[in-house]
Amino acid sequence: MAQGYIVSLDGGQCLEDTAEEFFLILLRRCLFQDVKKDQWGNITSVKMHDLMHDVAQDVQRDEYGKDLSSSTRIRSYFADDFVDKEIENMTALRSLMLISREFTFLYSLDKLLLLRYIFVGLKYLEAIPNSITRLYNLQTLHLHCKHLRELPKDFSNLINLRCLNLRGCRFLIGMPLGLDKLTNLKVLSYFVAGNEDLCGELKVIQTFSEIKGGMHIKIGENYKNVNGLSDIGEGEGYLNNMKHLSKVKIEFEGECVNPEGVLIKLQPSPNLKRFKLEGYHESVEYMEKEFSSSVDTEAIAEFFPSLETLIIRKMSELIGWWKGNVNMRLRFPCLSFLNIENCPNLTSFAPYYSTKNLPEHDLPRLSELLIETCPNLASNLIFPSLEKLKLNNVNEGLLITCVYPQVSVTKQREMITDNLKSLRISYVTELTLQYCGDMEVERFLEALEQSCASSLLTLEINSCAYLKRLSGLEYLTSLQELKLSNNEQLCMNEDDEEPWKSFHSLRKLNIYSLQKIKSSPKGMKHLTSLQDLSIYYCHNLEGLPQWMSSLSSLQSLVIDYCNGIKSFPKAIKDLTSLKSLTLTNCSDLIERCKNPNAEDFLKIQHIPEDNKRAWR
């Protein structure tokens, strides 16, 4: 676009849509590769094919580069670490990128009248020269300047500006006056309200109805203008008419005079896919009057029906979502990620529902849930699609019910919990229990008998400090992989038969840092399907048993930092399937195996020499 190569195919089509159409054509023809997408499926980056890159360089030749000898012909210029004053003479320049950690000022650019695109990444730059406002053809301006305080006073002269990206300007104190004159803006990533000497009124935002992508709105602590609230009806907020806006973050800095009035003015569109509210006024107790004024006494109310991500943090007085009718159901049909943090008075996410007779769930697509420091939250939460759960400092009365359909559940379910007493899940194929704190893990494992006996294939139990025994696992007859790590109280006695003799399908066993283990349970001799056995950091394990010859399918054995194991039993030579042996940081054992004259060398000579790895 900066070079003028994009021409609208249709008189009514904007340049951005035309450029996107051209881009997708090139992508379909494989001229771009290594496509990366965000969680909404939008393309965030691609790699140009080598052939395409060589052709582009050949076509441009002297029009692009760092060689200033032909400065009057250069159309694209990139400077890093050093910005030469010669840049002022590049009168043919259309695209300019300046990146430096040291430079604190910009040379005058007002002679570069053909400039369409500017990217400035000067970390310590505090002011942009006013001369930039005379670049009347400028279409795109990216400012990634952490210490930038304000934009030039005549910024409204840039009437052809289509993209203003200010994401890296975290110390910006306000917007320039006359910003509403920039009616061609399609991207406005950051807007700061609150400084009365600059553009301090939020209503400027409503000028930009064609804004696309995301917007971060920061409300300064001095923002006071909340007049005219009675003139704003339902669906008439400043953001409500932005049909292309998909992500909004509203951040309150300090004590805003009337935060409720600010949100009534903004009224985020119900079509949002991601919404983040941060630093909101501490006195807010319910969300209803701020966001759900259309909610009545109907049985089901939808809150932002297109929302996919919701993050709520630092709302110290928030109690619940609404006052009034406790029988009302609040439905988030598209929500996939929910994060609630530091809401100490939040008592309920939704009313309590029975797990029976649920024709539809209120969070049907939620795959990731993070709740931290919400000690009074005590709801019964029901999820049909949950994949990852993290709970920290929550009420012990919080009940999590994950009801999965008995079909094609293939993704990992990760449960990281602290202070949770009850967790119900069913029809899971992969499950991780991690940092479970005070949760009664043994009772939970016993509950797996009914819900996951035939479905669970992989189980990992990590850092569950109060887990003492593996009760309940004997019913997991389909289990193929088991990982036990950092469970400091877990004890396995030599005479234990259960749950090991029930693991007829177990293929892989990983034991990591279980310090109470002194000997291998006899029940492990029933693991006739075991193919991979790894033992790490079990310092008190005193040796391997003679019955290990029963592990007839074992193909790989890894022993690391287990100095209590001094030698191999004679039975290891009967493991004819064993093809790989890795010994590390076990000095005595390695000394007995490492050369033909060593005591245990003959016991392992059937293992291919190339597969005896990392001996040290």
Characterization of the model:
With 616 residues, the chain is mostly beta strands. Among the domains are: 1-63, no CATH class; 69-172, Leucine-rich repeat, LRR (right-handed beta-alpha superhelix). The chain is built from six helices and 30 strands. The strands form five sheets. The chain has a 17-stranded parallel sheet. A six-stranded parallel sheet has the order 3-4-5-6-7-8, with no helix packed on it. It is globular. The two termini are 59 Å apart.
User: Structural class of the secondary structure composition?
Assistant: mainly beta
Number of strands: 30
CATH class wording of the domain at 69-172 = Alpha Beta
Name of the CATH homologous superfamily of the domain at 69-172? Ribonuclease Inhibitor
Rg, Å, rounded: 32 Å
- How much of the sequence lies in strands comes to 15-25%
Annotation keywords:
6 helices; six-stranded parallel beta sheet; 9% helix; Leucine-rich repeat, LRR (right-handed beta-alpha superhelix); 616 residues; mainly beta
Topology:
Elements (H helix, E strand, L loop, with lengths): L14 H14 L3 E6 L5 E6 L1 H11 L15 E5 L14 E6 L16 E6 L17 E4 L19 E3 L21 E2 L1 E4 L19 E7 L25 E8 L6 H8 L7 E5 L9 H4 L8 E3 L6 E5 L15 E3 L5 E5 L26 E7 L5 E4 L4 E7 L4 E5 L9 E4 L5 E5 L3 E5 L6 H11 L6 E5 L18 E5 L22 E5 L19 E5 L19 E5 L19 E5 L2 H5 L20 E2 L3
Brief account:
The chain is mainly β and 616 residues long. It has helices spanning 15-28, 50-60, 259-266, 288-291, 441-451, 587-591, and strands at 32-37, 43-48, 76-80, 95-100, 117-122, 140-143, 163-165, 187-188, 190-193, 213-219, 245-252, 274-278, 300-302, 309-313, 329-331, 337-341, 368-374, 380-383, 388-394, 399-403, 413-416, 422-426, 430-434, 458-462, 481-485, 508-512, 532-536, 556-560, 580-584, 612-613.
